[in-house]
Design goal:
With 127 residues, the protein is mainly α. The protein contains eight helices and no strands.
Length: 127
């Protein structure tokens, strides 16, 4: 369970333990974060009639906030799969050989290493 969920259930001691585990035991961050979580839960419960179930309904309606991002990401995945990129990568050696490159295998290895490095870089930038 997440610290936020535990706090909404009134299980503050378990929420503290969960935060301590997430934050590697940093007590100052844990207390401040737990306090902000409690304030947010209180505000949400007061604004929606005071029940924890109303907080659940708030979360269920938030999918609309991310609809545009979801459509863009699914669209990108779709076009990536159907653009033929993987087919081109599969035949990189043949393509390099037909293009007249002297060492097609070396060119293929350079392309693959570049793809791995750029994929690693993109993962680091996204996360």
């Amino acid at each position: 369970e997440s610290p936020k969920w535990l706090a909404t259930q009134g299980r503050t001691e378990e929420a503290k333990l969960a935060l301590r585990q997430l934050r590697n035991g940093e007590l100052v961050v844990e207390e401040a974060e737990l306090h902000s979580i409690a304030e947010m839960c209180t505000f949400m419960m007061e604004s929606e009639g005071g029940s924890v179930s109303s907080m659940t309904s708030i979360r269920s309606h938030r999918i609309g906030d991310y609809k545009r991002c979801l459509i863009i990401s699914v669209g990108l995945m779709f076009f990536q799969q159907f653009s033929g990129f993987h087919a081109i990568m599969m035949f990189t050696t043949d393509i390099c050989a037909q293009a007249g490159m002297g060492n097609a295998e070396l060119s293929t290895m350079i392309v693959i290493v570049a793809q791995v490095l750029l994929t690693t870089l993109s993962c680091a930038l996204v996360e």
